[in-house]
Amino acid sequence: MMTETAMGKRQTSIIGGNAGRNRSHNRRVVLDFVRANEPAGRAEIARSCGLSVQAVSNIIESLEREGLLLAAGHRVGARGKPALQYRFDPDGAFSVGVELRPDIAICALINLSGEMIFSEQTDLADASLSCAIEAVDKVVNRAIRASGRAQKNWLGTGIVMPGPFGMSELSFAGGTALPGWEHVNIRRAFSEALGCEVIVENDATAAAISERVSGVARGLDSFCFIYFGTGLGLGVISGGHVQGGVMGNAGEIGHIITASEGLPCACGNHGCLEMYASRTSALHFLEKNGVEVGSGDDLSQLLAQNSEALLNWLDSAAEHLSRAIGMVENLFDPEAVILGGAMPDTIIEALIARLNLPRGSVANRKDRAIDRVLQGSSGRFTAAMGGAAMIVHQTITPSITVFN
User: Fold this and answer.
1) pLDDT of 307-334, one tens digit each?
2) What range does the domain containing 170 cover?
3) C or N terminus of the chain, fewer CB within 10 Å?
4) Full-model pTM
């Protein structure tokens, strides 16, 4: 955490430790401080981060060699010789995120500031692990070549997937399931194939992280992100931290019941939200009404044509979403609920316009500074960018732990 000082710099409350065992933590403390307060000199960094000047000098030399910090000239102080200043280099390294769905892989390469340098969507021949690993290996290497980045500056890859993780009664429900993956150490399998650090996360959580790094959730510490992927997911950020649950499955909003004795769902329940307000539900509804849809662009075109079938689906979906959002607000007390992901912007905008949010909600306050529901800004690459952002986050952001 950072606090403002009288000089306009931000003082870190996450300090380093001078013991050798804290070296990795100290690197992140220094890098995070310089990123927030650039340009900064060694003495200033040492004083603010609770480290010795010698420790800071060693860390800076290492970060300079890796291209993460740049010398930025000298600044003359009140007394003494000019102090050499350092800046954060957002292009000193990069990370890659890949979102896996049963039929496609979506890749995004970002720099340390979260700027997307490369993006690509590729089809998967099937949903098997071997097919996914081969496709991911190819698309990641294409991304690195196309971006002109050096392999040595590759921090790692975030693999993003629909949940749930582990074995449960939801493991094989509906079109989001990846058959044959349930007993596999996914992180290890992709790490060995790619030869890099790998993080695995569910798609909704990754999308929420992406939106906080470079979207409408910038500046928000507590919010919920309803993600339109193959199904529906919920990413929850509370106090700046991801809420994951014991197996990383917190946020399976698609299977909360919004219609008593409603439509049967593959999970075994009746009336699940996913049956009424997901991308898949829209396609099924339109098909039943004699309207063929092949892509998201088709949905946008139908909306522009005021398709009666689509408008009817929007009205029904908004009704169910309104109930679910009310539940989310009362459960998590977020600053806002954000809708986004692999649904055309025009469709999400139309859904938000039709919401009839419950009055009986902790979020229904007269002193609100922002709307209860916001539209996400990162589109279909949101989750893949979030996967890449998780790698950046673990590289440059220190944990809350204060070492002794």
Assistant:
1) 999 999 999 999 999 999 999 999 999 9
2) 94-206+385-394
3) C
4) 0.77
